[in-house]
UniProtKB/TrEMBL annotation:
<dbReference type="InterPro" id="IPR029052">
    <property type="entry name" value="Metallo-depent_PP-like"/>
</dbReference>
<dbReference type="InterPro" id="IPR051918">
    <property type="entry name" value="STPP_CPPED1"/>
</dbReference>
<dbReference type="GO" id="GO:0046872">
    <property type="term" value="F:metal ion binding"/>
</dbReference>
<feature type="domain" description="Calcineurin-like phosphoesterase">
    <location>
        <begin position="185"/>
        <end position="402"/>
    </location>
</feature>
<dbReference type="Pfam" id="PF16656">
    <property type="entry name" value="Pur_ac_phosph_N"/>
</dbReference>
<keyword id="KW-0732">Signal</keyword>
<dbReference type="InterPro" id="IPR004843">
    <property type="entry name" value="Calcineurin-like_PHP"/>
</dbReference>
<protein>
    <submittedName>
        <fullName>Metallophosphoesterase family protein</fullName>
    </submittedName>
</protein>
<dbReference type="GO" id="GO:0003993">
    <property type="term" value="F:acid phosphatase activity"/>
</dbReference>
<dbReference type="Pfam" id="PF00149">
    <property type="entry name" value="Metallophos"/>
</dbReference>
<dbReference type="InterPro" id="IPR015914">
    <property type="entry name" value="PAPs_N"/>
</dbReference>
<feature type="region of interest" description="Disordered">
    <location>
        <begin position="483"/>
        <end position="509"/>
    </location>
</feature>
<feature type="domain" description="Purple acid phosphatase N-terminal">
    <location>
        <begin position="58"/>
        <end position="141"/>
    </location>
</feature>
<dbReference type="InterPro" id="IPR008963">
    <property type="entry name" value="Purple_acid_Pase-like_N"/>
</dbReference>
Amino acid sequence: MRCCFSAPLAAMSALPSPCEVLRSGALLAPTLLRAAAGAFHGSGRKSHGHHPDSLAAVHLELVTLTEDRAIITWYTGVPGTNDGLGHMLPAVTEGEVVYGTHPSRLDRTASEDRPTAHHHVELTDLEPGQTYYYQARSRGKAATPTPLHLIRGNAVGTNRYGLGSSRGPYSFTTPQPPPGRHLLSIALCNDFHIGETTAGLMAGLPLLRGVAQEPGLAPYPEIMSRALVEEAQRRGADLLLAAGDISAGGAPRDLAEAKRILDGFGSHGQDYFVVRGNHDRPRHREAGDAFREGFLGGAGPAYFARDLGGLRIIGLDTYEKDGNGADAGGLGDEQLSWFRARLKERGDQPTVVFGHHPLTVRDSLFPVSGGQRLGRRQARSILDAYASAPGVFLHHAGHTHRNKRTVLPQAPHVTLQEVSAAKDYPGGFCLLRIHSGGYALNHYKTSGAPAREWGERSRRVAGGLWPHHALGRAVADRNSMTAHDLSGVSPRGLSATAGSLLGPGTATS
């Protein structure tokens, strides 16, 4: 199954512009050529001479940053080894993070409870608005950051402190908490791709190998999706919104498996909500619509509005049309008219909108094609509607498989949040924490051992360039806090269970 990030060459209308191709090509060519050359070599595991006690600590990332905690991950491998994909074999060892409020006094320590090669350390009891300095290390080796040099990004902190050295320490400043009391939390996720067997097969680049799961292990989309549900529950999510591409190709068995996994969170239409992505479309009309049958009981539209104790959730079907799945997203005329009416009738009501295709795609390392977003005309129409609906504060989308926060001048009160794919690196979900005076968005990697292992293996998608695209250029692309009046929302959406899915022509109550 090809990645929805790249449009098939036959879909000429979705191709990026020549300028986009030249810009990205100049950046990507050296790495892509190395990856293409590597495709001609054997894929079996290779090992070169190395000392049995040697170790390298790499891929350091500050994943999650809230007002009182930070989650830091890294990988330890054996130098001089190669798993066949240009990656070191794992070195299982201890991991710890030393940190403090001054770079020369790292007087606090957070450690893991068992040795591993896929390190995941959580710092707790931090103070809001405080700058911290830290160093992650294993067996005395300081971990080095995931390089984001092609995009001038920063994987390890909120400033560039320490990036000029190979050992750090690096630094971050904790944000202030959202104003007011906590009301409820919502897990935002997308791109499960249940049924997919190889990550990162890109159309038009046949020499770039995709990344498959290790033989004998469970399918990676199922590992990552189950881990996501468990992590979302552990992090206190009251609701879950899944923004499309639940399956890899719309097969009934894959959508049924996806529903079984999501049912581990609760009941569809009450505890979690799902909208369709381009991969979930029916391939043949005569074969029926498995997404509609599985999640909607075979009837009604694939878009809806729901009132959850004063918070309105609007789910959009952004591929409500015929097509090959690689072209731009589109809402049917009836859905678009219905959506505008919903925004107009209660423009002040706190509202979260979610759908598979983003309204805009900016600052991408890879060439941007029309297939990566909603059609331009409809996107402009929706932004115009948002400008007159001050209650809308968040539009959540997937499809691009990256973490990216965008705020546009047409509707500056709305955060456009793209969330990385659940199925592979960096994996996980974004937790939306709603307070009476604002909200926070925080990305969490799934932390189970099998999920960590696949997350590390799948970072080699696109010749190893995937972190430049998927992680987020800055910590703020996956962690942010915004002030917004949400005092009309009930704590934990307690009236949600009394509501009903509302389709065309029906007002929320």
